[in-house]
Amino acid sequence: MKQRNADLLMMLVTLSWGSSYLFMKDGLNSVSPFNLVALRFALAFILCGAVWFKRLRSTDKKTLIYSFVLGFLLFAVSASVIFGLRSTSTSHAGFLASLTVIFVPALSVIVLKQKPAAKLIAGACVTMIGIGLLTLSGPMTVKPGDLLCILAALLYAVHILVTGAAAKVADTLNLGILQLGFAGGLGLLFSLLFESPRVPASMGGWISVLMLSVVCSAAGYIIQSIAQKYTTPTHTGLIFALEPVFAAAFAYVFANEHLSVRGYVGAALILSGVFIAEMKFKRTSSKRIECAN
């Protein structure tokens, strides 16, 4: 597969994930939050498990343990976003979720004791200003939903780092499938404890759940695992940075959500900060400088 085709596939994945915020918000009209998490990931697991049943039978202990950890993180991420969407907009959720790109290198600095790059510091500063403009609705007030979406971005950054460690010792395909099952199981457990589980009663509710399960979860994770073999991490990071743009576009077209002028400026700064953190800057060699002089 050519890198251009791989990048196009990653773009489709990013497009589907950008739409997931709208489907989650619509899904909440039919079922409760934990119930929605359970349906989304359980159906995705059943679909993937049916296709790769024979391979799943050979799962080893390490893969199983890592799958549970990743499933727990995936459950926590989804629950945070879904609860966050109850008190914030689809557009806000999409842009705040893009903070994962900032949190990943920041956590690498903390965990791996790496010296922070100048681009990371610059990108983080620009992003923090953007968050303030996007989320502060009054004198130093932030909606609870915004904080939950920021928490989701942090948790997904942890998910990415754990996935990187797990990929070195575990079967990556089984890892991706089993984490869906554990996330769905945890969603069902919490729904039984705190809610009354049920299936959507309307066609719109089922469409939202099936889109989240089949397109955003099952197909999204499988295509990502295949396409990332043929493109670079830099390309992947930059393409994923378009997720909040797609989320805002879906919210504008289908939910008639509009940001204020300050909100658009803040969203643009968040996206700029993400790109700054991911960009690779080439240094001009001293010989070229001397020749120019």
Automatic annotation (TrEMBL):
Residues 6-135, 144-276 form the EamA domain. GO terms for cellular component: plasma membrane. The chain crosses the membrane at residues 36-53, 65-85, 91-112, 119-139, 145-166, 173-194, 206-223, 235-255, 261-279. InterPro entries: Diverse_Substrate_Transporter (IPR051258), EamA_dom (IPR000620), EmrE-like (IPR037185). Keywords: Cell membrane, Membrane, Transmembrane, Transmembrane helix. Pfam families: EamA. It is a multi-pass membrane protein. The keyword Ubl conjugation does not apply. Coiled coil: none annotated. The keyword Ribonucleoprotein does not apply. SUPFAM superfamilies: Multidrug resistance efflux transporter EmrE. It is found in: Cell membrane. Its main location: membrane. Belongs to the EamA transporter family. This is DMT family transporter. It comes from Paenibacillus rhizophilus.
